[in-house]
Amino acid sequence: xxxxxxxxxxxLWGWNRGRGIPEWEPADDTFAGQPRIPVPGVRVEDLPIGxxxxxxxxxxxxxxxGAARAPGWVLLHGATRPGPDHPAIVRLAAALAxxxxxxxxxxxxxxxxxxxxxxxARTALSQxxxxxxxxxxxxPGGVVLVGLSFGVPQVLRTGARLAxxxxxxxxxxxxxxxxxDDAIRFGLTGRFRLRGTIEYLRPDPYGRWVVAAxxxxxxxxxxxxxxxxxxxxxxxxxxxxxxxxxxxSGYDSVKDDLARSLARTWRPLFRLFAPPSDREPEPEPAxxxxxxxxxxxxxxxxxxELPRDFGDSPxxxxxxxxxxxxxxxxxxxxxxLERLLRRPADVSATVTDLFAHSGxxxxxxxxxxxxxxxxxxxxxxxxxxxx
Length: 387
Hints:
Elements: H1 4-17, E1 42-50, E2 53-63, E3 72-76, H2 87-98, E4 102-106, H3 109-112, H4 119-134, E5 143-148, H5 152-163, E6 168-174, H6 180-189, E7 191-194, E8 197-200, H7 205-215, H8 226-242, H9 252-260, H10 267-273, H11 283-300, E9 318-323, H12 332-341, E10 347-352, H13 364-382
Parallel strand pairs: 3-4, 3-5, 5-6, 6-9, 9-10
Antiparallel strand pairs: 1-2, 2-4, 7-8
């Protein structure tokens, strides 16, 4: 029977074939009917997964010529307007299908609206895992749950519980965060700690816009700033639909219009999060605001971070990957997650220069140097389906 090395080669072949997958185009907030993004060589369909309820839906990816007992995977998207139709998620799901797996990508409408409540994702993950395990065409022994970005902590939290019932055999994550304070501070200041030193990488403003849209008006004393939260939500929505880097100068006119729509007293607060594209937030106010936002997020949604104690049963094996040039969440967050999980779980993390947050990066020399490391990390993750 083919092993993880063969699975990884087929996955990479499918990933490279996915370069031709077209970009997502903004539409309404519905998720039904035929997928808008065709995938060559893979069968893709939309289906309900909530015990007959049409409200909970998912995309399913199958190999064009599937085995009778295929491995099952569930992918959880992050806080993004395209949701399951995000090009990176479509490409990942298609590559897994090329490796021989059946892949389910549940839709989280709240997260497509950029609402950071984790509860809908936990419900969808539970229903998706049960749906897959009831399918006689899926290999018995549980599925692999994989989260992307904001979705990783919920995959780890929910997957640890589902593994105790035999529904989940392994967990994976791409581009995760560990500590809210550190992740939000990076989004506002670009600073992160690596081996005791402070490093800097220009942060993608999209992250701080989404966080502030959800939690700025939940900070004590900022309750009246709901208008600023709304303006930042509009800015993040536009950026998510344009699919252009949020620091692009093309957003400056949008920021100007949104600032003018606010009362003068609120404009400096808006500009703290959304300065012109050639500037970054003022460092000291940004650092203070990051701490306030993290506290507000933690009070509003305590499950955004992982617990330190997973109870009597340890989580199943966990494999994590992160891009070193990730401008949304620094790779040090995945390394911190590995340290946090090392005691209760079989966990390993791979950091690669070949990826940023949701796309490829790096020149030829970088690719040659990093290819072996990436192959080993992918092989370790794909081996989860053969446990």
